[in-house]
Design brief:
The chain contains 4 helices and 9 strands; from the N terminus they run αααββαβββββββ. By secondary structure, the chain is an alpha+beta fold. The chain has one domain: Nuclear Transport Factor 2, Chain: A (Roll). Strands 1, 2, 3, 4, 5, 6, 7, 8 and 9 form a 9-stranded mixed beta sheet that branches. Helix 2 packs antiparallel against helix 3. The N terminus is likely disordered.
Length: 165
Amino acid sequence: MMNGTVGALFAICIGALALADARARTDTVGTEGESTADTVKQLERDWAFAAKAGDVDKVDRILGDDWIEFSNDGRKLTKEQFIASVKNGRVKVESIELGPLEVKVLGDVAVVQGSHVQKTTTNGRSTSAEVVWMDVFAKRDGKWVVVRSESAPRTEVASRPRWPI
């Protein structure tokens, strides 16, 4: 299913989104969008922590039922497959350090771009990596959920702040 690629599992993330007109007001300083940005950033942290802890109930609440990730190796991963990988213990997360998160709020859609360094094993084999990713959130029934994710391995390592989870 995942062929040992945890970057696919945690790159948490990231789909294609047709962005709105560049002239549309999408800055969030001093608006409800600022609150939205904080909310989706916290959901990203919660998702990483839940995956590390094996908390499939929390992962289930964060991901939309139609969530799909296209991983760094081109594989398609569904919500059911992701949850099964967390649940069955094939993927073990020792640590995840999130980099800075950038959020763009577009009404009931929010795009989060970020990176993380993960220390993981898949089927007993090291799959640690540094990954860059993008997640697309949608507001459904008053709740933000991740609906698309895409990831890629980071090819250059830059010094930047990290927040261990």
